[in-house]
Design brief:
The complex is a heterodimer of chains A (355) and B (496). With 355 residues, chain A is an all-alpha fold. In chain A, 74% of the residues lie in helices and 0% in strands. The longest helix of chain A has 30 residues. The C terminus of chain A is likely disordered. In chain B, strands 6-7-8-3-9-10 form a six-stranded mixed beta sheet, with helices on both faces. In chain B, a hairpin with a 2-residue loop joins β4 and β5. Chain B is globular, with a radius of gyration of 25 Å. Classes of the chains: A mainly alpha (355), B alpha/beta (496).
Chain lengths: 355, 496
């Protein structure tokens, strides 16, 4: 057992190393000094209180989408549509805030309802992808991808159409909400402890759900072997739908938080790729919920840190995406290589197990 | 083309599928290949047609040693195989299906191909419209298309794997006429089957495989008893059984009918009593699997009623059957019965009625520990299910069953297990019977059927014989029934 732990560690470390080497090569190729570039990423993430604050702000939606896709992955589903589910969350939250902002309802209640509406919107969008799969036989990857495009189109229509700013609509989004409708922040900061609290709670909740409950175990069984789960008495398609709805709700909350605590309006591209990034995080941690928070933190720090690269070396800030993708690809590759290695090393399975 | 197989060996992991097989077939012969499921017929034919490579041995065509690397390579050398399920393309037109796979140029010559198709079809009296779609054809017509395609590609050796499954009597006649014509044209025909009647009526010579070995070759006139003896081995000695049947009826079937795309089982009416064991015999795919799954609530019936413990469950869901006390154990343990990646503890929790929201893992581990001991499973509560051996997986499946059960349905409960595991599994099953559970099981092991059943149903192409009292049955009678002979025929000809 000890030996296999070391082998695991070796392959993981190897993957990390290769990812670093490859990104370094890219940095060299575009003429940026690699070590300074890495240092500036670190500075960009942790160098000042301000930087740390933006890091924590982007950590929150990433935590939520990661928590969401951990549920769908458990059920064996590739919920690519998480991005669109987040957008729908933002749209629903915006709609609720717009409808109630002049009604005299207490601001705190409006914000809370906005977040609930976001969860509802995300769940609705995920439910659509789920229904397409369950009742229409449409693979959730295609359904989700299609719905992502629809959600983008819907945002643009709203921003330039019914919800456009006084005057002409613009890519900078709808008219910002009044300050009272902002999710409360720490004094003189943009960071909302509420947003962070909700997100951390979501990750913790998903961890408990998947680890300690009958629901989580049955979800896992459906994901591992649908037929066996069915024969053992689990209502399988219903569990698939539950997984979609829960994941959509969490992604929707992420969208609502973008509206109520970050941008204070609806704008195109409000999901900012956090849905896809959540999928990457979940893959990187091999679907183990316990690692979600730290790895999402690491990814968020790469995101905020690489903003500096643009200022210093005219590198696009999407450079962090290159590093993140290399990391995930190589860790997955390393896992495949490890399994092959173990097979060739210790022979076929039946010779290893007692009978 | 003369075909010769010399000393063919093939193993799949621990399974020895072909052991030193020698067979030579002169051109113009229809060679029958007979054997029960798993005897090694298909493996041997796949070796000859390039689908798999033998571990050792030689293949000679017209006296020349050849290497066959792939099915495409085989057809270049003149060997083509017709699979049990046609390998065609239902959404395509017949002509496109016909051309596909033929080498030659960027632009296929459809006119020439259509002419070729028509000429060949005329020779054999097949009526195929080149512009029709393949999915509008019957299984028999798809077979005809495949024969023509192989011939157009230049096949001089044609292998037919169970070609009479799923086609009508008229089409079978046409097929047999075509096979005879092929032989007259000097082609070599290999006819793989488990149907005694087909082999007896068609083949110029017949080889019998059993457990990977060629056990004998015969020529007409065939003696059915001899063929059966070769297929199934020695006459089986039946150990005294210990029935624990009670009068109460657990399950009653009234004029039950069930069908899939290949066959239909209809008009089954009988009752299963508490504690009774019913064995379902027959070659794989003869309807017994369909029947068992319909009684489990997994396949919708098309007629008749299923009544379990006085409650009519016809048309209800699997979960309703389960609540009424039915359990179904599939043959494909890792594909359908157990979830790879989950531990034994997790399986035991899943199988129980969930109490509350949270799982009590300490209690679960205790339960797992207990069952592991009771069922003699080599593993710990934390063992992943796929790390267990086949016998342990089967014991785990049994350990997952709830108590009490009204009806236990099993597909091949001891397939792939050694003698010791088999005896253990059956001791556990008989324990259930003594508690009043009725058991219905499928097995391709005649010995197992005779040893443990109180009554037996024999399936052949969807036709059901029985239930027969197991007491008066012999393995030879069973063997003949499985091969499609009728009961009176056997009784008349059977030595007392």
């Amino acid at each position: 057992m000890r030996k296999s732990l070391w082998i695991n560690f070796g392959f993981q470390a190897g993957a990390l190393l290769v990812a670093l080497v490859l990104t370094t090569l890219i940095l060299v190729a575009v003429g940026a000094p690699p070590f300074q570039a890495y240092a500036s990423i670190l500075r960009g993430a942790f160098g000042s209180a301000n930087n740390l604050e933006s890091l924590l702000i982007s950590w929150s939606p990433l935590l939520l989408t990661t928590a969401g896709v951990l549920i769908t992955f458990s059920a064996g589903l590739w919920n690519i549509g998480v991005e669109g589910q987040m957008v729908l969350g933002a749209i629903f939250a915006t709609w609720l805030l717009r409808s109630l902002q002049e009604s005299g309802t207490p601001a705190g209640l409006i914000i809370a309802l906005g977040i609930v509406a976001g969860a509802f919107g995300g769940a609705l969008w995920a439910g659509l992808a789920g229904a397409l799969k369950t009742f229409g036989g449409v693979n959730e990857i295609f359904g989700g991808l299609g719905l992502n495009f629809v959600s983008t189109a819907l945002t643009i229509y709203l921003v330039f159409g019914p919800w456009k700013r006084p005057g002409t609509g613009s890519m900078s989004g709808t008219q910002p909400f009044d300050r009272v409708l902002w999710l409360p922040t720490l004094p003189d900061m943009q960071l909302s402890p509420w947003a962070l609290g909700i997100s951390l709670l979501a990750v913790f909740g998903v961890y408990i759900l998947l680890r300690g409950t009958h629901f989580g175990l049955r979800l896992k069984a459906v994901g591992k072997n649908m037929k066996a789960a069915f024969l053992l008495g689990v209502p399988t398609w219903q569990y698939n739908m539950f997984a979609f709805l829960l994941c959509g709700a969490l992604a929707g909350v992420a969208g609502a938080i973008q509206v109520t605590s970050v941008y204070h309006r609806l704008l195109p591209n409000i999901s900012n790729g956090y849905g896809f990034l959540g999928l990457l995080v979940a893959m990187l941690i091999n679907y183990q919920a316990i690692w979600a928070a730290p790895v999402a933190f690491f990814f968020a720090s790469l995101n905020t840190g690489s903003v500096q690269l643009q200022l210093l070396y005219q590198l696009d800030s999407s450079f962090s995406g290159v590093l993140q993708s290399f990391l995930v690809l190589l860790v997955l590759l390393g896992e495949g290589a490890r399994q092959r290695f173990l097979k060739s090393n210790w022979g076929p399975r039946w010779t290893r197990t007692p009978s | 083309m003369d075909v010769e197989l010399r000393d063919i060996h093939k193993t799949f992991g621990p399974v020895r599928a072909n052991i030193g097989i020698n067979l030579s077939i002169p051109a113009g012969t229809i060679q029958g290949l007979l054997g029960e499921n798993g005897a090694g017929k298909s493996t041997l034919m796949k070796v000859l047609s390039g689908f798999i490579r033998a571990d050792s041995g030689e293949i000679l065509l017209d006296g020349r040693t050849v290497q066959i690397h792939s099915p495409a390579d085989a057809i270049r050398q003149g060997v083509g195989m017709l699979h049990q399920d046609p390998l065609d393309f239902p959404p395509l037109r017949i002509i496109d299906d016909f051309i596909l796979g033929r080498r030659g140029g960027l632009l296929p010559d459809r006119t020439e191909a259509a002419r070729g198709l028509r000429d060949l079809a005329d020779q054999f009296g097949f009526a195929l419209d080149p512009e029709a779609y393949v999915d509008s054809l019957t299984v028999g017509e798809r077979q005809q298309l495949e024969i023509l395609r192989l011939l157009w590609w230049g096949a001089r050796v044609l292998i037919f794997d169970e070609p009479t499954t799923g086609i009508s009597a008229a089409q079978k006649e046409k097929l047999f006429a075509a096979l005879k014509l092929l032989a007259e044209q000097g082609r070599t025909v290999l006819f793989v089957s488990h149907k005694l009647e087909d082999v007896e009526g068609l083949c110029h010579r017949t080889a019998v495989l059993r457990q990977g070995r060629l056990v004998g070759e015969t020529q007409p006139p065939y003696v059915t008893e001899k063929l059966v003896r070769m297929m199934f081995g020695k006459t089986i000695e039946v150990v005294p059984r210990s029935p624990c049947v009670e009068d109460e009826t657990t399950l009653s079937l009234k004029d039950l009918s069930v069908e899939d795309h290949r066959l239909k089982v209809s008009g089954l009416s009988f009752g299963v009593r508490s504690g009774e064991v019913i064995g379902l015999a027959g070659m794989e795919g003869s309807g017994q699997g369909l029947f068992l799954r319909s009684v489990a609530g997994l396949v919708r019936t098309v007629g008749g009623r299923i009544i379990l413990r006085g409650k009519d469950l016809t048309g209800r869901s699997y979960h309703a059957f389960k609540r009424q006390g039915t359990a179904f154990l599939p043959a494909a343990r890792l594909e359908e019965g157990l979830a790879t990646g989950l531990t034994l503890s997790e399986h035991f929790v899943l199988a129980e009625e969930p109490g509350g929201f949270f799982v009590d893992w300490r209690e679960a581990r205790g339960l797992a520990q207990q069952r592991i001991q009771d069922f003699n499973i080599h593993g710990s509560p934390e063992s992943k299910i796929e790390a267990l051996s086949g016998g342990n997986q089967q014991r785990a499946l049994l350990a997952l069953l709830r108590e009490p059960l009204a009806l236990l349905l099993l597909e091949h409960p001891t397939r792939g297990l050694d003698v010791e595991s088999t005896i253990y599994i059956w001791s556990k099953l008989k324990e259930r019977c003594r508690q009043g559970t009725s058991i219905v099981f499928i097995s391709s092991d005649l010995e197992e059927i005779l040893q443990y059943s109180d009554r037996v149903l024999v399936f052949f192409g969807g036709k059901v014989t029985g239930p027969l009292e197991a007491e008066g049955l012999t393995s030879e009678m069973l063997g003949q029934l499985i091969g499609g002979k009728d009961l009176p025929e056997i009784k008349a000809g059977a030595p007392a």
